[in-house]
Design brief:
The chain starts with a helix and ends with a helix. The chain is built from six helices and eight strands. By secondary structure, the chain is an alpha+beta fold. The chain has helices at 3-12, 116-141, 156-160, 182-201, 210-223, 238-288; strands spanning 17-27, 44-53, 60-68, 75-81, 85-89, 99-104, 108-113, 168-170. The radius of gyration is 27 Å and the shape is globular. Helix 4 (182-201) packs antiparallel against helix 6 (238-288).
Length: 289
């Protein structure tokens, strides 16, 4: 089960909401809160989620969800209504980048998504959800004008122009807003899936062995002229030592084979995803003309 399905089931389904998009992100500038330092619970992942209510009138919410390391539990930290969202800053309108800013009535959050594709998908879904939300809100505020023909004089479109989102989107690429198409979502989802598979299949960095730290400490003590008398451990028999070395070399060889196979699979998946992305891009160009 994907992380989006888990978040939707545990956080939004009980409150009769549906999850539209969720991305993993971290703050670019961490807030300094020294009075909360004692209550920190270690490392965690942060997910920025966009959800909508199932019952009309539809409400949009941006929610911050955390998952602490070593715990499968998801915790809802903060939630804002889209009415409080004043500005979405894409940071760079010329190329894909993971940075983006969310400006609310009383706060500014500067985020960095886990990948460029996650940020692009979030902004595209957020823009169109806000656009539909504000158009529906205009119709609710002026129910008598909903049935008029906008081409006739006196229609709502001829008097006050097309409805636009109250949330201001700046420094965002046009392919994520007016020029967006459904093929972009397919490309972004493929890239996100590829990045997550790559991060799960590659082995984590190995920690430094404790023996090296002890040997370094001993050498430092000897250089300082401090003599430490420690009893030498009993030497194991030669036969058991040879067996241990043989088992360790065999385990290292098997681990190397598994790493090579994982690397081959990752390269094959990257090639397949790249081919699929190019094909989807060509189809998008073909049918957009």
């Amino acid at each position: 089960m994907s992380i989006q399905s888990v978040i939707n089931r545990e956080i939004f389904a009980p409150s009769d909401q549906k999850l539209l998009v969720a991305i993993e992100a971290k703050r670019r500038n961490k807030r300094k809160l020294p009075f909360l330092a004692a209550g920190r619970e270690g490392k965690y992942k942060t997910f920025i989620c966009l959800s909508a209510t199932n019952k009309p009138p539809v409400q949009l919410f941006i929610t911050k969800v955390k998952q602490f390391e070593g715990s499968p539990r998801l915790i809802k930290r903060s939630q804002w209504n889209v009415d409080q969202l004043r500005q979405v800053n894409g940071v760079n309108p010329n190329r894909d980048c993971p940075e983006f800013d969310l400006v609310f009535d009383r706060s500014l959050d500067q985020w960095m998504a886990a990948s460029d594709a996650e940020k692009c998908m979030f902004i595209q879904v957020l823009y169109h959800a806000c656009q539909n939300y504000w158009i529906a809100k205009d119709v609710q505020a002026n129910p008598g004008e909903a049935g008029r023909d906008p081409q006739k004089p006196g229609g709502p479109e001829s008097r006050k122009g097309p409805a636009v989102p109250r949330t201001n989107f700046i420094n965002c690429q046009s392919k994520l807003m007016e020029d967006a198409c459904t093929m972009n979502m397919v490309i972004y989802r493929c890239k996100i899936f590829l990045n997550r598979m790559k991060s799960t299949m590659l082995p984590p960095p190995r920690p430094r062995p404790a023996g090296q730290a002890k040997s370094g400490a001993k050498s430092g003590a000897k250089s300082a002229g401090v003599k430490s008398r420690t009893p030498s451990p009993a030497r194991p028999p030669r036969g058991s030592m040879k067996k241990a070395v043989r088992r360790a070399s065999q385990a290292l060889g098997e681990r190397g084979d598994r790493l090579w196979r994982a690397e081959d699979k990752t390269a094959h998946m990257m090639d397949s995803a790249r081919l699929f992305s190019n094909t989807a891009h060509k189809l998008a160009l073909k049918y957009s003309c």
